Amino acid sequence: MHINMKYYIVTISAIFIALGIGMLVGFNLNYDQELSRQQAAIIDDLDAKFEDIKTTNNELKGKLNNKESEYKKLVNYLNENYGVLIKEQLQGKNVGIISTTENYDYTQDVSKTITDANGSVAFDITLKENLSNKDKIKELNSALQLQLKNEKDVINYIMDSLKEENAMERLQQLEKLDMIKINHLSDNHLNYTQVVMASGDTKESSNKFVNIDKVIIDRLKEDGKYIIATQKSDAKFSDLENYKKDKIPTINNSQQGTGKLSLVYTLRDSVEKGNFGIGDNVDSIIPFK
């Protein structure tokens, strides 16, 4: 029987294809086995590294717990002994205090901290909400023959008054109109060199910074006065971030012992910058040289 040449070619081709498939399958089987061995080795290595990391993590956790315990002991010590630590630290300092929120007025506490450190309080003034009342401003203009237009003008009048010997006389009309509260005004108020801005609010929001706080800051800087901003740790609204932008040192826990230490040490050394107190957005508990 005559066998067509094409039959041989097809048959031979089929044989080679079958051989090729067999070799490929065999190769893949070997490859899969090698891959499995490699994967097993990687998993074993990862398990070993995980155990090392777990051990290291437990060691670090133990050290962190010890540090946190030491930190709490330090804070408690400072809170309990701040009175001894601030004694005589503000000798010769004459400090003014301005509260920008009448419903969050804690200036008496700030004033006591300053005097406990043997410093002097030049003035202690609380700005009230009526400071921005247009009818009150009209009454003030009528009583003192002024031409004030808004709260910015009123603030400038207050700051100018503090540069005069008859400051009490100039400011009493504002107190009568319930625009400010004069908690204290000393005879040597002209010699003040530093000012504590008592900020914060019990409300959830406030828009007073631009029209009130910022105006005071700019005037004090023009006059070369040193400024520090404070608030209590229970403030619902804070302007401290705005003070930070003006490169003013801040304290966010003025009612606590560490906050009182920060206030005194910051005033004592005229610390140029720094955010002190508790929480995440602070540089340290208190200023450290």
From TrEMBL:
Chain coiled-coil ranges: 43-77
The organism's place on the tree of life at top rank: Bacteria
Keyword Coiled coil: yes
Key words, A-Z: Coiled coil, Membrane, Transmembrane, Transmembrane helix
Stretches that traverse the bilayer: 7-29
Pfam family, one: MctB
Keyword Membrane among record annotations: yes
Protein name: Copper transporter
